């Protein structure tokens, strides 16, 4: 009989993030159905299942077939909810997500549906990202704030946070909805959802039912709800824009022989 350590290897840079992931995997392993799924995953891939904990990843969890690894970020769960069979929206938990990914790890995909879906999704995501990037905001209403903040990176950060929350985040949400519609209408994606995602949801529901928790609807396209744009995306986006702003400003100053504290500048 295989032990936990023969079947599963949990690792990551931050012990505080690794601990809850390891605990959740142990909880799943403690159930007969959980242990059976890990044994099946091991049999299918002839090696242990890796769980890589990454606090910088901007989605909660996923399973990667080519490395036979689950990638998870405990910090990213906050932005998502799931829809129950009765239509309620509840927060995701670690056990649910890891049970879901573990089923993927144990589920053969001889037709390569995962890869076909990934290709289709990449095309749609590319277009959705372009839509989000093309977001607009009323630049003139920020001009005065930018002038006041020109030597104050903290203030600049606040301005870009405001632009993110009020203009960029809504663009991300609408591109997310657009993406969902493309996936639902695409026959290849639909087949992947039915044959690969629905069984994973059914398994997470089985594990969660042991803890008296409600089931998630099996229709994957409707089963996850984005509550907020991830804090990681927000802070990366803001940092990029502040850096770009400062670089552009410094180049402008250098080109015009202006010192940073020159109060005569109007722009
Ligand atoms: Zn899945």
Question: Which strand-content bin applies to the residues?
Answer: 5-15%
In the sheet with the most strands, the strands line up as 1-2-4-3
- The class by helix and strand makeup works out as alpha/beta
Oligomer: single chain
Q: What's the number of helices?
A: 10
Bound molecules: zinc ion
Mean pLDDT across all amino acids: 90
Strand tally is 7
From the spread of the alpha carbons, the general shape counts as elongated
Query: In which range does the helix fraction lie?
Result: 55-70%
Report how far the terminal alpha carbons are from each other: 72 Å
- Radius of gyration, CA atoms, in whole angstroms: 23 Å
How would you describe this structure to a colleague?
This protein is an alpha/beta fold. α3 runs parallel beside α4 (94-105) and α5 (113-133) crosses α8. The chain is elongated. It has a 4-stranded mixed sheet with strand order 1-2-4-3. It has 10 helices and 7 strands. It has helices at residues 4-7, 15-29, 32-45, 94-105, 113-133, 140-148, 153-185, 187-209, 220-223, 231-256, and strands at residues 8-12, 49-53, 61-64, 69-72, 80-83, 89-91, 224-226. The mean pLDDT is 90. The longest helix is centred in the middle third of the chain and has 33 residues, at 153-185. Bound molecules: zinc ion (ZN). The site of zinc ion has 4 residues, from α4 and α8.
